[in-house]
Design goal:
seven-stranded mixed β-sheet, globular, Adenine-specific Methyltransferase, domain 2, 2 domains, alpha/beta, Rossmann fold, binds S-adenosylmethionine
């Protein structure tokens, strides 16, 4: 089980940082298993489990481009430091004018460093795109956002990847979950964390009942062991799809708190569920 969790440079709605120890308890992988993560987001789960072989994928091209450029050495921790020292200074001087300047520049050129800048200085650290695939999250209104300690934190998050990538056989692909799952064989492991139905929607990240059903069918057709992260209930609603779509799976639960902004009063409790096609205690592949 993992207890010291590495935090990646990208922040994303529904990030599983706090749930990594819980998720890792139920995972069943061997030395030669290929780890497939079709909805990688920040990648926090696979990056912490750190299997030798992995395919990380997502339909958001910007996340994939960032990780690929770190892997290829085009973006290094040194370059990240230089970039944030320079742009952070401009942000301090010009405040929101500079944020919106970078946002326009990113929407035109798609530079992964600008993506990282926006991701780390936008309102609530959200990733959201409009129907024209333009990043449209407003500014967090913190001109001193990129203080020295904060830059060092981001630099270290990139440095960790820089150190670990050469030891691994990892691929980062921009593609739909169907394409990723089709690549998996029966000895592989697929960890899925799709958008939660009815919760976050943007143009890389929409999800509905039909998608959830296609996901289940693709997972079963793959013959691989799989684990799905989903929500069970909060104080207002229960996820009925656990029964109607995933009724054949094993289930583990843990309570989790999501924060909207920094304030304690804005935390929402959610019962998380992990669904598997094997018994997570014995690891035997058997759908009930
Ligand atoms: C809940 S997030 C994953 C969070 C991730 N586990 C983490 O902890 O950071 C869901 C991700 O699925 C991606 N996504 C949405 N629809 C997709 C699709 N059809 N195929 C592949 N990825 C998709 C989104 O871009 C988003 O990054």
């Amino acid at each position: 089980m993992i207890d010291k969790v590495y935090v990646p440079p990208v922040k994303i709605q529904g990030i599983k940082t706090k749930l990594v120890p819980f998720i890792s308890k139920g995972i069943d992988i061997e030395e030669d298993t290929i780890w497939y993560e079709p909805f990688m987001g920040s990648g926090v789960v696979g990056l912490n489990l750190a299997p030798k072989h992995a395919v990380f994928a997502d339909t958001n091209p910007h996340v994939i481009r960032l990780y690929n450029q770190i892997k290829d050495g085009k973006i290094s921790s040194y370059i990240v430091r230089e970039y944030f020292e320079r742009e952070g200074k401009f942000l301090e001087e010009k405040d929101e004018k500079h944020y919106y300047y970078i946002r326009d520049r990113f929407n035109e050129k798609h530079d992964p460093l600008d993506f990282l800048f926006l991701n780390r200085s936008c309102f609530n650290g959200m990733i959201r795109f409009n129907r024209d695939y333009k990043f449209n999250v407003p500014y967090c209104h913190k001109p001193e956002r990129f203080a020295k300690a904060y830059i060092t934190k981001i630099v270290n998050q990139v440095k960790h990847l820089e150190e670990i990538f050469p030891e691994k056989e990892w691929e980062f692909k921009c593609q739909s979950f169907e394409e990723t799952i089709r690549e998996a064989g029966i000895n592989d492991f697929i960890y899925c964390d799709p958008p939660y139905i009815g919760r976050h929607v943007d143009y890389y990240d929409s999800w509905n009942e039909e998608c959830e059903t296609r996901l289940r069918d693709a997972l079963i057709a793959s013959g691989a062991k799989f684990m799905l992260s989903t929500w069970e209930e909060n104080k207002y609603r229960k996820n009925e799809y656990i029964k109607s779509i995933w009724g054949m799976c094993y289930k583990m639960n843990q309570e989790h708190f999501y924060f909207v902004g920094a304030s304690e009063k804005n935390r929402n409790s959610m019962m998380e569920a992990l669904l598997t096609n094997y018994d997570p205690t014995t690891k035997n592949r058997k759908i009930k």
